[in-house]
C-alpha cells in the first residue's frame, strides 16, 4: 500500500483563507491557513516574493480578509478569475 506524504486533507469546514483584495475589492489571490501560514503576516509573505512587492501592494490599497472556505466559495471564488469591472481601479 502506498501512502501519500501529504498531510490528510482537511474537511472543507475547517479550511480558512486569507483573501487578498485589491483596492477596489476584487480578489487577487488567496493564501490558505496552514502550518506554514498561521498568521496574516505569514500569508503576506506567502503571497509576495519580496518585502518590496509586499510594501508596494499595501501602499496601493491591497488588503486581506480572513474567511472560512464556504464564505470564500460564496463571495470570492466566482470573482477570482474575472476581470476587474471597477472603473477607477489603478
Ligand atoms: Zn475591481
For the largest beta-sheet, the strand count, sense and barrel status come to: 3 strands, antiparallel
Bound molecules: zinc ion
Strand content: 15-25%
What is the strand arrangement across the widest sheet? Answer: 2-1-3
Helix content: 25-40%
Give a written overview of the molecule:
With 90 residues, this protein is of the alpha+beta class. It has one domain (12-80). The chain is built from 3 helices and 3 strands. A 3-stranded antiparallel beta sheet has the order 2-1-3, with helices on both faces. A hairpin with a 5-residue loop joins strand 1 and strand 2 (27-32). The longest helix is centred in the C-terminal third of the chain and has 12 residues, at 69-80. The relative contact order is 0.24. Zinc ion (ZN) binds at residues 22, 24-26, 84, 86, 89. Zinc ion binds at residues 22, 24-26, 84, 86, 89.
Topology overview:
Blueprint: E1 16-21, E2 27-32, H1 40-47, H2 51-59, E3 63-68, H3 69-80
Antiparallel strand pairs: 1-2, 1-3
The structure holds zinc ion.
List keywords for this structure.
90 residues, alpha+beta, 3 helices, 3 strands, 32% helix
Question: Short description, anyone?
Answer:
The protein is an alpha+beta fold and 90 residues long. It has helices spanning 40-47, 51-59, 69-80; strands spanning 16-21, 27-32, 63-68.
Amino acid at each position: 500500500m502506498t501512502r501519500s506524504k501529504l498531510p490528510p486533507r482537511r474537511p472543507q469546514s475547517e479550511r480558512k483563507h486569507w483573501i487578498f483584495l485589491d483596492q477596489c475589492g476584487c480578489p487577487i489571490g488567496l493564501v490558505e491557513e496552514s502550518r506554514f501560514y498561521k498568521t496574516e503576516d505569514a500569508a503576506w509573505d506567502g503571497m509576495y516574493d519580496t518585502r518590496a512587492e509586499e510594501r508596494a501592494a499595501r501602499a496601493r490599497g491591497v488588503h486581506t480578509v480572513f474567511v472560512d472556505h464556504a464564505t470564500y466559495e460564496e463571495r470570492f471564488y466566482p470573482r477570482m478569475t474575472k476581470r476587474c469591472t471597477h472603473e477607477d481601479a489603478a
